[in-house]
Amino acid sequence: MRRTRWVLVTVSAGALAASAVAQPAFDLSEDWREVAYPDLFPTQGVATRGVQVPYGNGPDQEIALRRQVGGIQVADMNNDGLDDVVVACYISVSNPPYDDWREMIFYNIGNGMIESTPSWVSDNQSHTGDIQVGDINNDGFLDIVTIHGGGLMPDSVRVFLGSATGPDQTADMVSNTDPGSWGTSGLLIDIDHDNDLDLVTTNQGHGAGDPYRPMFIWLNSAGMIIDVPYWESVEESIQNGLAAADFDGDGWEDIAVAKWNNWNSAIYRNVNGVVQQTPFWTEPDNDNDKGAVFADFDGDTWPDVAFGGNPANMWTNNAGSSFSLMWTSDAPLQGPQDFRAADVDNDGDLDLAEIHFSSGRIYVYLNQDGVLGDFPTWAYDAPEVGTALAFGDLNGDEFPDMVAGYSGDVCLRVFLATDLSCPIDLADPQGQLDFSDLIAFLVAFSAMDSAADLAQPFGQWDFSDVVEFLVQFDAGCL
């Protein structure tokens, strides 16, 4: 098992850079607050599959470009009916160094595959910790909004307007923000219900002596994000991760924000289009949270809230009045870098997924009838450090494919979802059960492959898995 470690960065960037020659390979996170040493205990990608998780034992595609991915979105950027992969890159004083950190679009070339080299790149390099996609000017083409930090550029937000052939490569709006405000994540939402997308950003300060900043909201006017924020939170802190939902049923979307470094993650209430500057609710325990999710996990029609942390927690919504702890991750390694909700198994409810910086692991927690599993149902362990996750339908089969971002020689991995309505249909041709599936099961069982791990508890290959195979084979997976 990989035993890479992470620590809070307490030395200056200059000191790290000066000592890089003498150090082993290391990577810094996009906020420069975590460092990992992935080469100390190298490992190959390994997956374990539980029932109804549609991803296999390895990626369907790897992008072998040395980049540090800060954020990913999956969206159709050129209106050709195929989802593309939009990527933001950041720069750090990692060792060995990185020499390219531009935004990129990997266009879809069919059958769920994306370009191995992006045919769209921004014309300016900047430290980009997050990327958002939406139709800012309501012209029917998706635009790109990038969230910046690192002090490398005198701005924290840029907008690239889209067209029939894709977005402009030069930013159409560059914010006029204090360069000391380091943007960490963003969320596009029509916060005031005037039929255009506004922007919420989380922030941190610049440097150990000035670490805190407020959250910002940027209004959309006449089809463009105004270049200065109109709203700030009262609290100055370190935030990283946003979500929006109408948690109290008043018709206005509220904002959940994950907070890092011993600040309390919180929900800010939207009152008739104006977000309150102080939280309505705060998570009782402070933690190093990254990533916020609003979703109705328990199926009672009220959006619950989850934060990626150490460990990740989900709080059930008590009819818009309060929140109660409902779920806590029991995964062996904690501390996600990105945290997402998606209906991974296409059963009508939302599951949770997270990717970890220090270990390079992806965890998927399945939601079974309103109950999230405490332990990941599926995991993938990469040799690089993990930085970003996104879901979308790359191959048009209406199943959620997953794209994972990394800092390292492989910067993206694509996992195409497969319809696992019949998990024992293991042999080709798919769609029929026969003796070849039995042979495939026995081979997988002998190798302790996850495809043969059919019975609970998962992770044990014993007679109960054989019985489960025979039961399903007899039923024909109906």
Written account of the structure:
With 478 residues, the protein is mainly beta. Helices cover 7% and strands 35% of the residues. The chain is globular. The chain starts with 5 loop residues before the first strand and ends with a helix. Residues 1-21 have low confidence and may be disordered.
In short:
With 478 residues, the chain is mostly beta strands. The chain has three helices and 40 strands.
Helix-strand blueprint:
Elements: E1 6-8, H1 13-19, E2 27-28, E3 34-36, E4 47-48, E5 61-63, E6 67-75, E7 84-89, E8 104-106, E9 108-110, E10 113-114, E11 120-121, E12 128-134, E13 143-148, E14 157-160, E15 173-174, E16 182-189, E17 198-204, E18 216-218, E19 220-221, E20 224-225, E21 231-232, E22 239-245, E23 254-259, E24 266-268, E25 270-271, E26 274-275, E27 281-282, E28 292-295, E29 304-307, E30 313-317, E31 323-328, E32 336-342, E33 351-356, E34 361-365, E35 367-368, E36 371-372, E37 378-381, E38 385-392, E39 401-408, E40 412-415, H2 435-446, H3 463-475
Antiparallel strand pairs: 1-3, 2-3, 4-37, 5-40, 6-7, 6-39, 7-8, 8-11, 9-10, 12-13, 13-14, 14-15, 16-17, 17-18, 18-21, 19-20, 22-23, 23-24, 24-27, 25-26, 28-29, 29-30, 30-31, 32-33, 33-34, 34-37, 35-36, 38-39, 39-40
